[in-house]
Amino acid sequence: MMHAARPIQVWLDDPQTPATMRQRLQLVQAMRQFAVTELGLPDNSSYQRFADLKRRYVVWNVVAAPAFSLNLKSWCFPVAGCVTYRGYFDETDAQAHAAMLRHQGWEVSVYGVPAYSTLGWMNGLGGDPVLSTFANYPEGDLARVLFHELAHQVLYVPGDTAFNESFATAVERMGVARWLAAHGTPQGQANYLQSEQRRQALRTLTRATRDRLTLVYKNNHAMANENKGLLAMKNEVLQDFRAAYAQIKAGWGGYAGFDAWVAQANNAAFGAQAAYDDLVPGFEALFVRQGRDWQRFFMAVKDLAQRPVPERARLLQQWALERNNG
Q1: Which residue of 2, 82, 186, 297 sits 20 to 30 Å from the alpha carbon of 249, by its own alpha carbon?
Q2: How many Cα atoms occupy the beta-carbon half-sphere of 285 within 13 Å?
């Protein structure tokens, strides 16, 4: 990947670069500059180069959870600390590891990832490149990926996937709203609004489903010898989830982008989504508390990261509730 990456300007100067790709890379440059000047995101070598990987995803993540819990299995690494996913550059390797985990009794989800951050560690070697796996995304989604991955270079707390991913997701959502308001094309704004409405509908449904599953799994110890009954309650929740999704999808004009995820959704999939979702309202509320000033917001998040995990989660939930209650 690093070997395939060339500076974006080199691609733009190359007469062999297709016109459509030239336009996308120019859009990336504009978004990258916006990220620095308007969002206060890092001004470094990341996303100044482009690599054509000639495949759909850059890595495949494996996540796993017990049969009656949404708590994800953790893997620990020297730099990243403990995280609730394991990434592979080769899908075959990811599926092999998933098969081993299933044999051990875990519920497993494997999903492709179009982008990832090296947390700034590669900036001295040219930085994280823009990849063909997401370069052709619609305007709003392209900005979403860039802002999300750059946010990881602002702050990364080893061992707290939910904090890290929810922070980056909050930055992405607020950043995309600003980008589209200032520079988005009418078509780009309309497309993103539609896709975000669909994502929000799915987020609301999955959040409610996770809450129901959590209540079911609280009975785990009381029903230690009655797993058949527990499994029946779990399956009922999942059936209701898929039925509700079908009703929501009926109003989407044939859009089927979430169908595969919904069909295969299990504890691992729900747990992984929670990491990107549950604490986002708290970060959005903190941004408002800091006067919608990006630098003050980033400093406040860094201060929050110094607190114990339970305390920072409690504060984020408290701020979100206070904002909702007006």
Answers
A1: 186
A2: 17
Among 302, 272, 275, 273, which Cα is nearest to 286's?
Answer: 302
**The pair of three-digit structure tokens given for residue 222, joined into one six-digit string:** 């009381």
Percent of the chain with pLDDT over 70: 93
Contact (CB, 8 A) for 146 and 153:
no
Q: In the numeric block, which tokens belong to residue 215?
A: 């209540």
**Measured in whole angstroms, how far is the alpha carbon of residue 90 from the centre of its chain?**
20
- CA–CA separation, 291 and 129 (whole Å): 32
pLDDT digits over 164-192, tens only?
999 999 999 999 999 999 999 899 899 99
Tokens (6 digits) for 236: 């009922």
Which pLDDT belongs to residue 107? 97
Q: What is the pLDDT of residue 79?
A: 65
For residues 116 and 88, the answer to whether their CB atoms sit within 8 Å is no
CA-to-CA distance for 118 and 133, rounded, in angstroms? Answer: 16
